[in-house]
Amino acid sequence: MLIFEQLVTRGFMALDPNRNVLTFNMDVVSKFPGIRKKKMEEFRWLIGEWACENRVRATPTTPAYTDTYIYTYEYADNDTRITVTGPSGKARPLLTFDPFSNRWMTTFIDGLYGVLQSDGWQGNTLVSVGRLTMLGVDCELRQTMTRKGDNECHILNEERLPDGSWQVTDEFYCRRKAA
Question: How far apart are CA 74 and CA 119, in angstroms?
Answer without folding.
Answer: 22
